[in-house]
Specification:
Layout: E1 3-8, H1 18-26, E2 29-36, H2 48-67, E3 73-76, H3 79-90, E4 94-98, H4 103-118, E5 122-126, H5 148-156, H6 202-213, H7 220-223, H8 236-241, H9 246-258, H10 265-287, H11 309-317, H12 323-335, H13 340-353, H14 358-368, H15 374-385, H16 400-407, H17 412-417, H18 436-442, H19 451-463
Parallel strand pairs: 1-2, 1-4, 2-3, 4-5
Helix pairs in contact: 3-4, 5-10, 9-10, 10-15, 12-13, 13-15, 14-15
Length: about 475
């Protein structure tokens, strides 16, 4: 009877899991494994928030598998060493896993392929985290897309595959293999968490999906821009960790759209666009890998960015004197999350008001975000900075005051995260310096820069390299 190891990575779920379902089809025995490797929690851009979410989701997966009669085999160490050994222990002929799309992960999978094949074992990788991979959607002349709108049109023209079936209960109990324990706490890894994170796990992800599709998705086109409202799906940490499958999300979205009124369809379509952006940035990263090191448009690598460390620290700490920026940054530090509209506001403020290199902000986000994704994070930062593919033009510069007034008109979000401004009325909450006496009493900092002055400097900086 054939035995296959399924290696869980960024797919911590038992339903709608392509590699897992393929293993079930092809083998009598499927052995679920999870390798806790040093790379998960070491390195300059590792986020403690993502680490904590991953651990919680892995433990949820272990319990879910146990309910189905399967043992999750946990090993700690290097996959290159563990996988051949586990194949021998389990009598397995192959390892199945879902693809990862970061360049470092792909290079590692190439090494593992060679190691397993040399040892006499197979290693098969499957498309799971995306609907269409990096070179599956190309222009008519065979080139990758660099503009979102035609890419999205081509994406939507294709049929979407149905979700894969859930892993069935074990038909027979296999001989148990040695399993290490998952870390019981972050302290065991020498890490500490100060953030209050969303809850991980497949069950939580499915509940959140159904809650969103039952109503909020219909107002998504308008509500998604207001951070004080519960207008977003909050699924991004789950999509990143793989506690929910993208085909499941799209199937639920189609059902929601099918029962929508004419007025509600727009919300569904805008949400679909956001999911397509995720794949658009993934194919940009693969087809134009230089974006990891610098600007998509190399001419912008010549920009004379500021290296003002005090300004950067004020931005990180939420002490710039611009309330909507500071509230967003304090929320990020406290929760590991940030609303999409706020990501654009704070990114434009860092790059076009403080004139600091977008890579500084990109790196900080990856250290803080529970949903930090290399492709989406890089794409979002380059869009805001005006240096990327399909980017906001360099002369589009958000005014942090008018952005706050438009998207947090009553100051509800600002007051939640900047309690020292609670006494300010709505008409002053986004420009508290207009009441110097009250500002001094609140002990909130004045603006670190003048937006009008910095806007002129930004335009000159970009024009100098055009």
């Amino acid at each position: 009877m054939k035995t296959i190891l399924h290696w869980f990575r960024r797919d911590l779920r038992v339903a709608d899991n392509v590699a897992l379902s393929e293993a079930v089809k092809r083998a009598g025995n499927v052995v679920p494994i999870f390798i806790f490797e040093d790379a998960i929690y070491t390195g300059p851009e590792v986020s403690v928030a993502r680490m904590a979410f991953c651990l919680q989701s892995a433990e949820s997966l272990r319990q879910h598998l146990a309910e189905l009669g399967h043992q999750l085999i946990v090993r700690r160490g290097k996959p290159e060493e563990i996988l051949p050994q586990l194949c021998r222990e389990a009598g397995a002929q192959a390892v199945f896993a879902n693809k990862v799309y970061e360049p470092d992960g792909q290079r590692r999978d190439e090494r593992i392929t060679g190691i397993l094949q040399a040892a006499g074992f197979g290693f098969e990788l499957f498309k799971d985290a995306v609907i269409w991979e990096e070179t599956e959607i190309l222009t008519q002349v065979g080139n990758p897309y660099t503009v979102f709108t035609p890419y999205a049109k081509a994406w939507r023209a294709r049929p979407i595959p149905a979700p894969r079936a859930k892993l069935p209960s074990a038909s027979a109990r296999l001989q148990p293999l040695r399993s290490d324990a998952l870390p019981a706490s972050l302290a065991e890894l020498g890490l500490s968490l100060t953030q209050e994170l969303p809850t991980g796990g497949e069950g939580v992800a499915l509940a959140r999906l159904r809650e969103f599709m039952a109503g909020p998705v219909y107002a998504y086109d308008s509500a998604r821009d207001f951070p004080a409202q519960a207008g977003t799906s909050q699924l991004s940490p789950h999509l990143h960790a793989g506690t929910i499958g993208i085909r499941t999300v799209l199937a639920e979205l189609k059902r929601a759209r099918d029962r929508a009124t004419t007025a509600q369809v727009a919300g569904c379509d805008v949400f679909l666009n956001e999911l397509i952006w995720r794949e658009f940035y993934g194919q940009v990263l693969h087809n134009f890998p230089h974006v990891i090191r610098g600007a998509f448009r190399p001419v912008y690598d010549g920009l004379a960015w500021s290296e003002n460390r005090a300004h950067f620290q004020a931005w990180c700490d939420g002490r710039t004197g611009y309330p909507i920026v500071d509230a967003a940054m304090r929320c990020l530090k406290a929760t590991g999350t940030m609303h999409n509209r706020l990501r654009m506001i704070v990114a434009m403020f860092l790059t076009k008001d403080l004139l600091i290199h977008w890579q500084w902000g990109e790196r900080y986000f990856m250290q803080q975000l529970v949903d930090g994704d290399l492709a989406a994070n890089n794409g979002g930062w380059q869009w805001s900075a005006g240096t990327g593919t399909d980017a906001a033009p360099y002369f589009r510069i958000f005014n942090p005051v008018s952005q706050g007034q438009k998207f947090d008109p009553e100051g509800e979000f600002v007051r939640r995260w900047i309690p020292e401004l609670k006494v300010f009325p709505a008409e002053l909450i986004h420009e508290p310096w207009e009441n110097p006496l009250l500002l001094a009493k609140a002990k909130y900092p004045p603006p670190v820069v003048s937006h009008a002055e910095q806007r002129a400097k930004c335009l000159a900086m970009f024009k100098a390299v055009k």
